[in-house]
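TA notes, week 10

Several of you asked for a full example with nothing omitted. So below is the full record: C-alpha cells for the whole chain, then the designed sequence directly under it. When grading your own attempts, check the secondary structure regions first.
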C-alpha cells in the first residue's frame, strides 16, 4: 500500500520516516519530496508497505501523531486521475506579459512607452 505523510517537520529525513513506519511492518520504500531547486523538504512524503494490514495499522496509529511538535497527516495515497491533469506549456504561452505586443499596456519593454524621454 502507498501511504501519504503530510505536515512533516522540514528536518525529517527518509531514514527517520522509515524508522517510524517499520514499527508496524516491512517498509519497501520511503520518499520525502524535496524542492528541485533548493533540495529542501516540501513537508510531505510517501511510504510503500507491502502488507496492507500493517500499512492500515500504521495509518490508524500514526495519523495525528506528533513529530517535533507537529501533528502529521497519514492516509492512504490515491493516484491522481489522469483526466484532471493540465498539460504543461513549455513555451510559457502568451498571457500578455511584460513583452507582449498583443496586450501592450506600456510595460517594461513596450514600444509605445517612449513619451519623449531619453531612452
Amino acid at each position: 500500500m502507498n501511504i501519504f505523510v503530510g505536515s512533516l517537520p522540514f528536518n525529517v529525513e527518509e531514514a527517520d520516516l522509515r524508522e517510524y513506519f517499520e514499527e508496524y511492518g516491512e517498509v519497501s520504500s520511503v520518499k520525502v519530496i524535496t524542492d528541485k531547486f533548493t533540495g529542501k523538504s516540501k513537508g510531505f512524503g510517501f511510504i510503500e508497505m507491502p502488507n496492507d494490514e500493517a500499512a492500515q495499522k500504521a495509518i490508524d496509529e500514526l495519523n495525528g501523531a506528533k513529530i517535533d511538535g507537529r501533528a502529521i497527516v497519514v492516509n492512504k495515497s490515491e493516484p491522481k486521475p489522469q483526466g484532471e491533469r493540465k498539460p504543461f506549456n513549455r513555451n510559457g504561452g502568451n498571457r500578455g506579459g511584460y513583452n507582449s505586443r498583443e496586450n501592450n499596456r506600456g510595460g517594461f519593454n513596450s514600444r509605445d512607452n517612449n513619451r519623449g524621454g531619453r531612452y
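The radius of gyration is 23 Å. Use that as a sanity check on your answer.
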